[in-house]
Amino acid sequence: MKDVTQFKSTYAVRLYELLAQWQSTGTREITIVDLRELFCLQNKYPKMAELRRNVIDKALADINLFSNLQVEVSTRKRGKVIEAFQFTYQVKSSTVGHKSKKQVEKTYYGFTKTEIDKAAKPGESYFQVGQRLQAAALETKAE
User: Fold this and answer.
1) Are 71 and 19 in contact, with CB atoms under 8 Å apart?
2) Measured between alpha carbons, how far apart are the two ends of the chain, in Å?
3) Whether 84 contacts 32, CB under 8 Å
4) What is the pTM of this model?
5) What residue spans define the domains of the chain?
6) CA–CA distance, 12 with 16 (Å, rounded to integer)
């Protein structure tokens, strides 16, 4: 449960559940049709590249960063058409690959939440402030 609470992607939670069910085998294949149904994506992301980028890759980034699993994905094709995603994964050792909240905190363009809070203007998101601070730092280096 601790792993799942840090996920940013809603699809990461569901994918983690699906993979954890088969954790002892270390592999899981999910057809595109089943994946769309399980994630309620009937008409969303019609192109495979969009599905991969916006759902699978984002979910795997969260799972690999925050959870106890290290996951890789490949595809199974029939001709040129992708029919399924094949996930291979293993449990990370307890000391390697598991990042604490403090280690993960520097995710906003290299600035901590505390630094962002100090520099934020009303209505700005963390990422907007991070972008602004990063641009200012680059300008300073250029001068």
Assistant:
1) yes
2) 48
3) yes
4) 0.61
5) 2-91, 105-142
6) 6
* Bridge pairing between strands 69-78 and 81-91: antiparallel
Cα gap 130→48, rounded to integer Å: 31
Provide mean pLDDT across the span 104-110. 55
Sign of the C-alpha dihedral computed for residues 118, 121, 122 and 124 taken in this order? negative
Could you give the CA distance from residue 96 to residue 85 in angstroms, rounded to a whole number? 27
Instruction: Determine the length of the chain.
Output: 143
pLDDT at 118: 83
Residue 95 CA to residue 35 CA, distance in Å, equals 32
Per CATH, the number for 2-91 is 1.10.10.10
Q: How many CB atoms lie within 10 A of CB 102?
A: 8
Predicted confidence (pLDDT) per residue in 61-79, tens digit:
888 888 888 889 999 999 9
